[in-house]
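Homework help board

Subject: predicted structure for assignment chain

Our instructor gave us this sequence and asked us to write out the predicted structure in token form, then describe one feature. I got the tokens but I'm not sure how to describe them. Can anyone check?
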Amino acid sequence: MSGERYKTVEKDRGLYLRPTETIDSGSDAVRTAAGKLTGGLHTEGEKARALFYFVRDEIHYNVYMLSTFIEDFRASVVLGRGKGYCVQKAVLLAAMARAAGIPSRLIFAKIRNHKVPVELLKQTGVDHFPSHGYTQLFMNGKWISVTPAFDKALCEKTGVPACDFDGKHDASLSPVDLAGNPYVEYLEKYEPQADLPFDWLYGKISPIWGHKRPWMSERDSKGHIMPLSGYRFP
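My token output:
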């Protein structure tokens, strides 16, 4: 990163540490979880790795958790449910990073997944996803991209490499599976965002999934979020 760009990030540091409606890093649940995971760790890299692996493996990936309701993307809600799809997990990691004092932001890409489950392909008719989300963390003077989407258990089940993070370098989805067959293609990357661009995301989701896509098992008859029943941080 050039010196000028570094100064810009430092100047706007508060922007990437500030809680928002969805990246609610100031919530008790997020602050407590981040504190317990990073307590006793000294470097940003160590803290970032602890947060990454928690979100990757303890918040289980489920594409059917996708929603067209903004409150379903709130980090504290995703934490409480213990499951989510790529964007929700990216939001949670961003919130936990901010709670731990690490500047964070969201980034999106259009990807093609060559291993889309048959039932999902039948439902949507597409093998590409226009709004795959992941997280960027600002450490050691540069933005590092990390992808906590697919938990290790799911990767082992589907025969793809788990996305590992060393605390220093980008961690992206692999272009090939464990057998060397095509897996993920990054078709287009979009500008990073300091907050969840929900209106943009809604515009990407709706044509594929429809305009009303709540988690019906998690809501009452009026569409309100039911009491959390998922992950409880020890």
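Reply (TA_rk): Your tokens look well-formed. For the description, you could write something like this. The longest helix spans residues 44-58. That's the kind of observation they're looking for.
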